[in-house]
UniProtKB/TrEMBL annotation:
A Pfam family assignment: zf-dskA_traR
Signal peptide: none
SUPFAM superfamilies assigned to the protein according to its UniProt record, in alphabetical order: Glucocorticoid receptor-like (DNA-binding domain)
Record key words, sorted: Coiled coil, Metal-binding, Zinc, Zinc-finger
Coiled-coil spans in chain: 10-79
Lineage: Bacteria, Pseudomonadati, Thermodesulfobacteriota, Desulfovibrionia, Desulfovibrionales
PANTHER family assigned to the protein according to its UniProt record, in alphabetical order: RNA POLYMERASE-BINDING TRANSCRIPTION FACTOR DKSA-RELATED
Span of domain Zinc finger DksA/TraR C4-type: 82-112
GO molecular function, one term: zinc ion binding
Positions annotated as zinc finger (dksA C4-type): 86-110
Keyword ATP-binding recorded: no
Name of the protein described by the UniProt record: Transcriptional regulator, TraR/DksA family
InterPro entries membership: Znf_DskA_TraR
């Protein structure tokens, strides 16, 4: 992988990491505990608890993605020769895929 390509991918990683951090901050704010003594109806409280579960799931997914992006950045910065190669078939992962999902470890064909 040439330096210009690495630079493009690195920029994509940094942008997506920032988006993840913003999403995490937003989700953490929305994931506040549902108070059981709130003067709302039982169904409203149940809705709040379900929504909180959905928010927590999204928060965990976003934190996991941020960790994978951080790992991708480390690999790029360390000039890991395996970065950008599919772990399944060994072929190069398409640049378009790496720009969209820089943490990808498999090519589009193996992902299907």
């Amino acid at each position: 992988m040439d330096e210009a390509t690495k630079k493009k991918i690195r920029q994509a990683v940094l942008q997506q990491m920032e988006i993840c951090r913003q999403e995490i901050a937003d989700l953490e704010q929305r994931a506040e505990t549902v108070e059981l003594d709130q003067p709302i109806g039982r169904l409203s409280r149940m809705d709040s608890m379900v929504n909180q579960g959905i928010v927590m799931s999204s928060l965990n997914k976003t934190k996991h993605r941020l960790a994978r992006l951080e790992q991708a950045l480390k690999r790029l910065d360390a000039d890991d020769p395996e970065y950008g190669l599919c772990v399944e078939c060994g072929e190069e992962i398409a640049l378009k895929r790496l720009l969209a999902l820089p943490e990808s470890e498999v090519c589009i064909h193996c992902a299907e």
